[in-house]
Amino acid sequence: MKSNRTNHKHIYRMETQQIVLNTLKDAGAPLKAGEIAEKSGLDRKEVDKAMKVLKKEELIVSPKNCFWQPK
What average pLDDT does this structure show over 63-71? Predict the structure, then answer.
């Protein structure tokens, strides 16, 4: 069984991923990671981690170099 602390980290990561995805959806246009961090209020490193998972899960795509949007 996972410890409570590990469980909280997992939940936090999931919330961060959802915030990143919502920020992209709300923008209505492709954004750079720095813009996502600025608009969401998240730390850039947290945005990068969340985007890595979202890319792997194919929930975001890059229409042009360094810009991202929801799939």
Answer: 95
* Per-residue confidence (pLDDT) for residue 14, from 0 to 100: 79
**Domain range spanning residue 61?**
4-70
The tally of domains found in the chain comes to 1
Residue 3 pLDDT:
52
Mean pLDDT of the chain: 89
Which CATH number do you get for residue 43?
1.10.10.10
d(CA 24, CA 3): 32
The SS3 call for residue 65 is coil
Which DSSP state fits 59?
S
Strands (E), the chain: 60-64, 67-70
Angle CA 2–11–1, to nearest 5: 10
